[in-house]
Amino acid sequence: MRLFAPLNPPLADWHGKRVWLVGASTGIGAALARQLAARGARLALSARDRARLEALAAECDDAVVAAMDVTRPADFIRERDRLLALWGGLDLVVFNAGTYRPLRAWELTPQNVRETLEPNLLGVMDGVAAVVPGMLDQGSGSIAIVASVAGYGGLPQATVYGPSKAALINLAETLYLDLAPRGLGVFLMCPGFVATPLTEQNTFHMPALISAEQAAAEIVAGFGRGEFEIHFPKRFTRFLKVLQCLPRRLYFPLIRRATGL
């Protein structure tokens, strides 16, 4: 094993690559679609909002529109089968769909817990279950899971969102252990604060806020380097990683001071 070799097969030549973007209608997903289309990728765009997808597909050399709801496992099977019939295989599936609702501990209800966990966690696991067997059969392919730095440690207002993203980080690590020895790539993306319709809900200062286009550029660069974890912006994510090494009696007051919550 080479110590500094890429953990994944680098994805640098996108021409003709068959890419399924799940959660492509807005934000990071839409920005990533535009950047991959400009590099020659063949795209399938999924989300619930067909009108948004059709408008985006027109910008991306008439990408395939695959409208679906990630909380319905049958939708994954239906669109997977349609894409396999159309393309014969998949080179990369990006699981970016998810939701965010600021919640404090006293605001939890069974309903709002499930409204976050179903798309953020169960939807990803259902999608992985749908596409991995085919990739193993073809002997190639990669999956990419968009988590968040909110999964690194507890943060105010992320009472359900944070645990859902922490679970995705663990899932990606576990998938890598299973799939990398069998020739598949597993990428984990952990963005910091990105200006999207979801983060507009935040009422606190968001340090190192970047645009969706900047986030997509970071992801494409990370794919090209074959990184397992693509985290950004580094000036913020490295700080959060250091915080996780501190005793909790230091971590908690620092997080309260940083967020003002």
UniProtKB/TrEMBL annotation:
<dbReference type="InterPro" id="IPR002347">
    <property type="entry name" value="SDR_fam"/>
</dbReference>
<comment type="similarity">
    <text>Belongs to the short-chain dehydrogenases/reductases (SDR) family.</text>
</comment>
<dbReference type="GO" id="GO:0016020">
    <property type="term" value="C:membrane"/>
</dbReference>
<dbReference type="Pfam" id="PF00106">
    <property type="entry name" value="adh_short"/>
</dbReference>
<protein>
    <submittedName>
        <fullName>Short-chain dehydrogenase</fullName>
    </submittedName>
</protein>
<dbReference type="GO" id="GO:0016491">
    <property type="term" value="F:oxidoreductase activity"/>
</dbReference>
<keyword id="KW-0560">Oxidoreductase</keyword>
<dbReference type="InterPro" id="IPR036291">
    <property type="entry name" value="NAD(P)-bd_dom_sf"/>
</dbReference>
